[in-house]
Design brief:
By secondary structure, this protein is of the alpha/beta class. The chain is built from ten helices and ten strands.
Amino acid sequence: MSELIGVVHDGSVATVVLDRPAKLNALTKAMWRELGAAIDTLSADDALRCIIVRGAGEKAFSPGNDIGEFATERANKAQAIGYGAVMHSTARSLAVCRHPLVAQIHGLCVGGGLEIAALCDLRICGTSSRFGAPIKNLGLVMAYAEMAPLVALVGRAVTLELLLEGRILDAVEAKEKGLVTRVVPDADVAAEARATAQSIADGAPLVARWHKKFARRLADPRPLTAAEEDECFDCFDTEDFRTGYAAFLAKTKPEFRGR
């Protein structure tokens, strides 16, 4: 990718880096676009089993969108609609990514950074991490597509607490409210995120993809179809099931192939 979004491969785990440390990884329109492209490419890669998303350095995941860009990219409604289209396209890419997403959160995770983290499946942060969306102070609203992942994650009440009060939560309160999955010492965030990704990668990849798909579908109030109910049993015809079942009986570690 470009200098704005980095992608590093380590076996079956890829790490996507919001790479603008001089600005605490503040997001630009170009970064949103390139992040979406990176996630789309990785989602299509069957060799991958997990993706870590992080900000460069250890000061911030991201403080949100770069306010300095507003004068040229979000100065009026017409420009904001175009900017929003890029953001929302990337949000969709994150939401439908086939592989599990782990947010590795150092320091500040605010605004658009929080929106990205909310779209990940697991969020691991350090004790000094901070979370919020104080956009009321900018006279901005969080659009439906941006608010929906937060509401799905922590509910309407917590989302409105963040937006109406503009509060910044510490890691302990963020964990209590369901914003993060796990809080560890700051020095252990990277190792914990990598160990989590490896634990996911060691499992059957088809199963991880099915579980993500099923969880998304259960958020849809429509009744499940017969075909959807039937898909829950497709795993029994996979090589991975036979491998896992045999390894369990033999008390050995399974080597899944994603078939």
